[in-house]
Amino acid sequence: MKKSLGAKTLIYPTPVLIIGTYDDEDKPNVMTAAWGGICCSSPPCVAISLRKATYTYGNLMSKKAFTINIPSENYVKEADYFGIVSGKKEDKFAKTGLTPVKSDLVDAPYIKEFPFNVECKIINVLEIGLHTQFIGEVMDIKIDEALQEGGKPTIEQIKPLLYAPDSRNYYTVGKQIASAFSIGNQL
Q1: Please, is 168 exposed, middle or buried when counting C-beta atoms within 10 Å of its C-beta (0-12, 13-18, 19+)?
Q2: Model pTM?
Q3: Residue 111 domain-assigned?
Q4: Locate the Flavin reductase like domain: which residues (predicted)?
């Protein structure tokens, strides 16, 4: 028997996304967000949702661009820190020793040390309630060459972080159990 939990912000898995932006003085900033994911295939787009109270919200509205940086499990401390502290009060790059890299395609920085970076220009903004959704068209994806096989990223080598909103814990990706668009053919 199933038990109702009521209406909550709970879905599995939830990604750990590090959003990169510049402020009006071109100071690089990053913040951790879990509300986001792919939202369109053509053009390729992703969506992130943030509260207006965040420093990043103002940067997004001003610069109309962002990056999504996927941290590996090796950067769990930094990813958590990026969600704890406001970039308005602290230089998060200086504190963590990570390197901001200016994108050639959008007005936003990505994190050099993180294995997976998505560069986006904002094409739509939707006020939902407490959060505002920013839809970004993907202009480019950068992935460390060592984490690719045949020009494609390998999730087992990237080791992206996952977040459980109910317990407020971080997890990593498990083993592959089947091939999509294939195993279903056995039925």
Answers
A1: exposed
A2: 0.94
A3: yes
A4: 9-154
Dig out the tokens for 176 from the structure. Answer: 């592959």
Closest CA to 123 of 65, 69, 67: 65
74 has pLDDT over 90:
yes
Quote the domain boundaries for residue 133: 14-186
Rounded to the nearest integer, the mean pLDDT of the chain is 94
The yes-or-no verdict on residue 149 having pLDDT over 90 is no
What is the number of structural domains in the chain? 1
Residue that has been written with the tokens 């990053």 in this structure: 30
Q: In this structure, is residue 145 part of a structural domain?
A: yes
Could you tell me the CATH number of the domain that includes residue 173?
2.30.110.10
Tell whether 7 is covered by a domain: no
